[in-house]
Structure formats: structure tokens, C-alpha cells
Amino acid sequence: MSKIALLTDSCCDLSKKTIEELGIKLLPFTLTVGGESFRETIDKSTQEFYELLEKTDEIPKHSQISPVTFEEAYKELFDQGYTDIISVSINSQGSGTYNNSLIGKNDFFENVPEAKNKIRIFNLDSKCYTLFYGYPLMEAAKKIRRGADAEEIVAYLEDWFNVCGIYAVPYNLKYAKKSGRISAAKAFAGELLGLKPVILFADGTTTTVDKIRGEKNIVPKLAEIVEKNMTPQTPYLMIHGKDNTLAKEVEKELYKKTGRKAEMYGSIGAVVTANIGPELVAVLVRRKNK
Question: What tens digit of pLDDT does each residue of 156-213 get?
Fold first, then answer.
């Protein structure tokens, strides 16, 4: 009988409570800010991280999860009797973590040869960040409890990663330009004109799809862009930083346009915040024509 484990990193932005309730194995990123190092989700909650940011002007630093960490996680799950591991990682275009998950798999099977015919490891590149893969992992855990097999779960996740996208508006680009990891933000040159970019996170890349002039126009413009590009009658998620005020206003506009409320609200965690800042509003949707 199969026994399926879900393995992911802390950039999925699921809470510690949710991770524990669903039985997902979490590998945390380690961040350093203000001379303090901590493991995302494990040592500090998202709210505690926001409070830490308010005390410093320093941009947090973080490193990828190592192959050894993955190898150890695979070994632990193998020893616990799992027959399948589905490992979902942060976008490979923004971190070496996914590639390290592959190296760790090769090292695991080399060092534990008896595992080769007893356990399968599926390594998936989420092609994105935050709840883009956190939410479907929640749904995958529920599917597993209902009896879904590994192939069904992998197909569900791959479909989600290929079809969905996040439309995000960061309030400022201080963090994004210093980190340099978000190419669309790095190349954006309209801040001095009072413009804010609408950035699409999808397919492993970032693209500026529109520009908004003035904060008062963020809500109607973002709702318009989302409604235009989302598949009708499908769920959407609201994503925000330390303040969810604009997220609630965007949801109200989308409810007027679609008749649907958000499936879920979630805040970005430490790794995402380090690269885009603690202030943004975003919507995750299933895109049309994908």
C-alpha cells in the first residue's frame, strides 16, 4: 500500500499550524537581518518578521536550501515507511533550491541503494512563490487523505503550476531593486513619475503587464486586470503584506465583477518579503487560455 509524503520549503507561506495539521514536511529557509539569523516559519512567525523589519533598514539575506538537507529529509521519510515523496520547491529561476532537491535525490539513492525499488521521489519546480504553491499543496494533502495516488497528485500540481499566475502591485520597489531577483521590478523605471507596476508572476518569470498612477487607482485597476485575465467561475486567492486593507478592497471589486469571494487570504512570508518588501497587494488566479 502506498504512503505519500508532501515535502516543500517555507516560501510556500503556509502557517506552521497548517503545515502540522496537514502533515506536510517543511524545510525552512534561514534568513539573517539586523544581525539575527532565524528559520522562516519555525523560529519566527510572519507577523514577528514584519515587526523585526520595522526596527532595521537592512534588507534581509537568505540562502538556498542545501542538497544535504534534502538528502536527510528523503532519508527520514524513507525510514518512516513512505513509498512516494512529492517534493515541491520555490521557483528555480529565483533560487537554486529546486536543483539542490535533485542533487539531494541522487545522493540519497547513491548512499541508500536499498531504497531504489522501495520509494519514488517526484521533484516539482513550482515556477513561482508564496501561496502559488502553498495553496495547491494544501489541496494535495486533502486529496491524499481521500485516497489519491502519487501520479494524480503530481498531475494536479503540474497543471496548477502551468496555468495559474499572481498579479501583484508592490507599493514601492526598494526591496525588489536591492535584491535584484525580480527582473520586472528591477527594470521598472516609472517610480519617479508616481507609477506602480502590476507584475505578473507566472511560468517561472516576472513581467510588468501594466502601470498604475497613484495609490487611489490600485484597487480598481488591479481588479480590472485580474477579471480580464482570470478563467471565469474559478477560485482566486488574495495575497498581501503586513496590511490587508487594500486586499479587502480589491476582493470587494472582484465580487462585484465575478460574484465570487476570495477562496483564501494569505500574507507573504520572510523570503518573499525580503525580495519584494512588506507592502503589496496581489491576486492569484487561474489564467485564461492556458
Answer: 999 999 999 999 999 887 777 766 666 666 656 666 567 899 999 999 999 999 999 9
At CB < 8 A and 24+ separation, what contacts does 51-54 make? 53/273, 53/278
Residues in a beta bridge with 195: 213
- CA dist., res. 273 & res. 240, Å (int): 10
Q: Beta-carbon neighbour count of residue 103 at 10 Å?
A: 15
Query: Has this prediction a pTM greater than 0.90?
Result: yes
In the beta sheet, which residues pair with residue 283?
A: 167, 238
CA distances from 266 to 116, 131, 283 (A): 38, 7, 10
The string of DSSP letters for 232-254 reads TT---EEEESS--HHHHHHHHHH
186/62 Cα distance (integer angstroms): 19
